[in-house]
Amino acid sequence: MAKATIKDVARVAEVSVKTVSRVLNNEPNVRPVLQEKVHAAVKALDFKRNPLARGLRGQQSFIITLLYSNPNPGYILELQNGALAQCIEQGYNLQVHPCDHNSPDLLKSVESITRYSSQDGFILTHPLCDNKELLAMLDEKGIPFVRISPFTQEHSSPYVMSDDESAAYEITKYLISLGHSSIGFIKGHPDFGATHKRYQGYQRALKEMAIGLDETIVKQGLFTFESGETCARQLLSQKDRPSAIFASNDYMAAAVLKVAAQMKISIPAELSVVGYDNAPVSQQIWPSITTVKQPIQRMAESVVEKLIRQIKKQPFDDIQTKFECELITRNSTSPCA
Amino acid sequence: MAKATIKDVARVAEVSVKTVSRVLNNEPNVRPVLQEKVHAAVKALDFKRNPLARGLRGQQSFIITLLYSNPNPGYILELQNGALAQCIEQGYNLQVHPCDHNSPDLLKSVESITRYSSQDGFILTHPLCDNKELLAMLDEKGIPFVRISPFTQEHSSPYVMSDDESAAYEITKYLISLGHSSIGFIKGHPDFGATHKRYQGYQRALKEMAIGLDETIVKQGLFTFESGETCARQLLSQKDRPSAIFASNDYMAAAVLKVAAQMKISIPAELSVVGYDNAPVSQQIWPSITTVKQPIQRMAESVVEKLIRQIKKQPFDDIQTKFECELITRNSTSPCA
DNA sequence: TTTATTGTTGATAACGTTATCAGTAATGAT
DNA sequence: ATCATTACTGATAACGTTATCAACAATAAA
């Protein structure tokens, strides 16, 4: 059997194609009797509208593109799943597109995506969402987009973010509550907004508890395992080594565990370690790592909702939505000896 | 400036729209002179065809859907990236769709995807590609699909696979070459084809080296960290515990490391451990885990190529393409004491 | 009652491409 | 020189939907 079209539905329901279209699009001014008839016909024929035809005529494709360049697979996949769930609910499809945020061809690459696959909007993950040229280009082309965890909040497009500053503050306070006062810090990659927010939260907690900031136990990492290893080695070979280390993500926290193991420093007895992100490794390692979990899935759902609102030119409540993170205590932390 | 259409190109190139279309689709029988003119006009107008209109008229969407249900984020993302690269090269777009292979609604869910977003074909990852009802449904609907690492090879659709049996054989032989003769094995989830192939490779290596299969040191895992932990505990608390353990994936190998640490068994000095998959954790843990890396990216590219061939009804060389894996030796293995 | 407004409906055009088919020019065969 | 074939080109229909607009019926206002 060939696929049913609106014409078929119209014939069966004994109305015009336009009326069928009206019903399917929830347009007003159709008598309930006819609505019933149309719905019955749709069901009887198992009719689904052709998204291509819909898109061609309606100047929209019902496709949303997720643009990512973040190398953290667990994060991206969770984001993707959350975004997709919301897309499906709203009748959209999700297309994905990885890109290299360091490449000089980034703009060209995104530009070509906009040409070859007509999408109604973009979701930008960090650090893409802090690329001013990219934002400017999308603005100029008039393509709606939303941002996830941007650092620069100047732009007027909607975004969601997790409260990294607060979460970093909380986890630092947690370490302090365990009696730690010498708490090393490993920063993330300077290009990422989260890096600065997490560091700010760390500083606020220290300040509030009247612990001076000791810059000799603050190291610049890059969010990679290798960078964490280098920093950990520096931190742990100092004569007065910290009794706890806050690594800006779990990869670097795992690296701290490695260096500690090599140096025969027992965790958590002699050194407490916390990470950030609740990456898979934080559970797959022993001791498992105390960390912060962002509600990634919910953030993704929320941001898609914002995007679709923007596409449909519906008003939306807030440009910004902030999500609270959750502290997950595991086995890498214990009271200070 | 509004987007250029074929009409505009035709006007500028002083030919008919059909001739433009012919040139763009590489159809024969257009004089070189006109081809030149068209190409010049396309370039001058920066023209790109509208994929929606193309799809509507041509009965194809240039969209390929990647269907996955595998919970391994690193694996999926690498697959996705590889597939996408090939899609772009061939002018296709990639849509993704996670689904739950245990859900009774799986068929319905996939069915609804086929209705709401017209795609030209599917990529099925395992274990979805071993679901007979799913294959039957796609067959009945006449939607082309390809499979990645299927277990049941009965179906006539093309597929790619990595040679799990060989790789498992090689890594087992590697352990034997280090002097190990009591090698424990933790199986994967029985629903996955890879589980059986890896076990077969293990058995073949033992047989070839005249080592009897000792079923008391073969445990049934589920590919999860938790299942690995349970199996490891059983294996390591036996009186004659094995001197090496082959876990069917890296998550379970990481679990072995955890149990060993808790039982004060030093790795690799007292126990060698190997995993499979080259998951991120295998590098982020200490000691880092000797493992097997599948050429996931290349497999994805190859499978997309097969799919597009099938979509275009072009002949393809081989139904099956097999890829060799790579043994990556790290720090979790050493000669038997 | 008459007029203005609102609600309801459908015929037809339009979205931007590819497919069909017919027509003309060029080439080859007889 | 004539006819058959092949190469080339374009006018127009078609894909399946939504948008425009006109028409008419029902209701409210005068």
Automatic annotation (TrEMBL), chains A, B:
Gene3D superfamilies: 3.40.50.2300, lambda repressor-like DNA-binding domains
Positions of the HTH lacI-type domain: 4-58
Segments forming a coiled coil: none
InterPro entries: HTH_LacI, LacI/GalR-like_sensor, Lambda_DNA-bd_dom_sf, Peripla_BP_I
Gene Ontology terms, MF aspect: DNA-binding transcription factor activity; transcription cis-regulatory region binding
Alphabetically ordered keywords of this record: DNA-binding, Transcription, Transcription regulation
Highest taxon of source: Bacteria
Pfam families per the UniProt record, alphabetical: LacI, Peripla_BP_3
PANTHER family, per the entry: LACI-RELATED TRANSCRIPTIONAL REPRESSOR, LACTOSE OPERON REPRESSOR
Protein name: Transcriptional regulator
Organism the protein comes from: Colwellia psychrerythraea
